[in-house]
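User: Can you fold this complex?
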Amino acid sequence: MSKVHVSTTVNGEPVEFLADTRDTLLDSLRDSLGLTGTKEGCGTGDCGACSVTVDGTLVCSCLMLGVEAQGKKIETIEGMANGAELHPLQRKFIEHAALQCGFCTPGILVASKALLEKNNNPTEEQVRYWLAGNLCRCTGYDKIIRAVMDAAAEMRGAA
Amino acid sequence: MVKVNLWSGLRHFTDGQVVVEVEAQTIGHMIDALVGKYPGLGPIFEGGISVAVDGDIVPPDTSKPIDDSSEIYLLQQMKGG
Amino acid sequence: MAKDTNMSDFRWIGTRPDRPDGLDKVTGRARYGADIQAANMLHAAVVRSPHAHARIVKIDTSKAEALDGVKAIVTRADFPTGLTGEDWDLQENTMAGERALYDGHAVAAVAATSAHIARDAAKLIEVEYEILPHVIHVDDAMAEGAPVIREGAAGPAVPPGLHPNVVGYTEFGHGDVAAEMAKADLVMERSYKTEATHQGYIEPHACMGQLGSDGKGEMWVCTQGHWYIRKMCAAVLGLETAQLRVTASEIGGGFGGKTTIFMEPLSLALSRKAGGRPVKLVMSRSEVLRATGPTASASMDVKMGMTKDGKITAATANFRMQGGAFPGSPYDMALYCAFAPYQIPALHHVGYDVLANRPKCAAYRAPGSPMGAFAVESLIDEMCAELGLDPMEVRIKNGSKSGDKASYGPTFGVIGLEETLVATKAHSNMSVPLGPNQGRGIAAGYWFNHGGETSVSVALSEDGTVQVSVGTPDVGGSRASMALMAAETLGIPYENVRVNIAETGALGVNEPTHGSRATFASGKAMHGALTQAINEMCKRAAAKWKIDPEAVEWKDGAAVPAGPNAGQFPPMTIEQIAKKMGSTGGPISGHHESVPGGVGASFGAHVVDVEVDPETGHTKILRYLVVQDAGRAIHPSYVEGQYQGGAVQGIGWALNEEYIYDDMGRLQNPIFLDYRVPVASDLPMIDTVIVEVPNPGHPFGVRGVGETGITPPLPAIANAVAAATGARIRHLPITPTKLLAAIKAK
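Assistant: Here's the predicted assembly.
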């Protein structure tokens, strides 16, 4: 079966790639576009390591097909910083030591950014429930939650 | 002579002794002397053991010196995770 | 460095700078096991047995071979024969021989030009099985009539007359148990069980292997220990070890599960068969759960005698553990740790390592210690309840101190249990008032920590910055700790040190990042290597000043005369020495390798408050405190991180996680939906207190901290649930269904 030509926008840039119809969006991002920042942790939409946004909606890219990216706007971890300027969430994660192995970090950052764009003043409980779909096995989540709340505070202050 | 504390599961190979005395100046020689005295210990040691000298775990073939005042315990091989 | 140096004497140690790999990890730039591509690369897929125990009658690969894009297929026939002992176990686990021994056991592997074709080809490989009876649970596997998994696998220490599935045995103790038990006012005997749990790292195993017909190979792999991967692949495939070069990628979690091989040799075997093309092999999550090493399950009987004022007089323990279809459950370590926090006049331990039709177990954070702690700390709590005693006071009363003999024999060096218990008792969490359906539980825990083979190099760059090459992959921030210790030793800024995890071709043998050894052992060796480099830099200054090298010392990043008699010379900085080193004698570096002694054990104590919903049996964690002795916290944020992460893995193990098998011996929950690890909404903040009783065996007083944190949660939570409900659960996990039934049965 021949591959499908897909035209889409990733992190603000127009891109094209060929997708096997069985490729997930995660496969396409990682293998066709070389954007390996988004990770596969489970392949069944349970761990959130593959989190990206598609037209502004947070999705598990392992649950979407590559061919479905046609004409969409996709944002991955690679697009989070503005050139050399890190997003406040990225800075706060480093500052708060909110990562140990770092494997879940891209997914959690993408998910956290989506939260703060919806709700710029979440409570601790709201942050925890929003991130319930992002598994972390190293940190116990404590420093992650602190980093997200601190980034939210900074972003509100700067607003 | 150095005094070596074995674990009681090894008594079967040491005529019922749990504390064994051998002549040795280093840990490595102590292990050789134990196997020389009680050959049944050979396969067990080959499977891997740890040696605690004065509370410190050392490799079993080392030339670390010991004497009759050293506290020596043989333990199952230690690994972490 | 003097062991009683105050924290205030340090310029770098104890601070919280950004970790050096932080930028890579928050931008997605860091490259993990599956983040690699190579020209001409093939993709692999593995065929796995769906049966718990079956004879492999026939493997027909013809249809798969005919599929376009398939470049190589391997079965056990492609592996060398004649291996023995642990090497044989590793080979047999990498690919089944005559029999499949567990659901998920690899029986064939295929490499193809795409992952889709590889998976399609795997489905075309036809395997004929003859299903055999299987056994899953440890006590069943030891019983008369249990299916035999392997004849003659018992170690030399196993007494005669036991079932062939019993492959390991230990017995040790001291004192007169009967006499000391008779002195007790209360003797209690209980049985406790824990189930197998998986380390649950979010990154599945992944590697890319390349092996030529000349026996030279390269591998990129996510691992805690690339020298072990090298050694094990070489053994399993019959290669010369030095001809295989292994590079460790960044690692997305290990916790012990990535200290060994599972499928890595397959990528090399396929590569060789495919003419040396690189082969990428990535496990799916269900493969990880079915076919890599969870920890063992345990069935434990403990008996203890206690006086009415809380003195423990004697105890016995009988632990039985299954580590899957191969020897290696941590039954011995569990026994060593079980009573280690206490001084008990008479002890007797017996342990059994048992085979079962389950995956080959791997180390999981303080292997064995959580199970032993669950049994002993639960029993102590039950006895305190019966005698009306305060559980914290009983811990303190019986607690082991520096210079005491450990429960397993050797004398403790400097340990910090007493300080840890005192700090726990004094913490405000201990006095938060509790409401209805709420309960508080405490428990202590222990892990020895480890030294192990270590080889480290340091080198001076032309501009005076320093590179450090270690062999311990960075699982949780150790590069930051190395750089802090190097900065402190050299007296240069933290930012001027770059720590690299070197590949196997660059250093002598290094044991993995396990046993909580990286900051301790790599740090200690690095200190030795830096000392060597410092001596050389002082020699260069001495030569320039025309004085004796003995008259030069190192201070604040420069060589200085060691006293007024040595002469009046301004400090020669590291930058100045580096700039000239090419012409003053050549490169300046240092190297140190050893199996370091002076390992410092780490004790911990946890306090947890829970609330149990009496209608659903659901347990909510209200408050969680970890108090643990770190010796010296080089980078406190990452020490706290280890405490919190270990505690949460323990919470999962206590409340939710277990391997569930059906009556055909198939794993029922091999995905994260059903193998439910703690998520952010399950938990509160995890409070931590770092106690520092410096370890005299390390230049900065470091004790390993990574593992002890998982040892108290299992009993602390069981104790809290018992306090909240009056129902004592002795078989983990404490699922809502189980707890509800126990509450109703009361």
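Chain C touches chain A through 60 residues (CB under 8 Å). Chain C has a mean pLDDT of 97.
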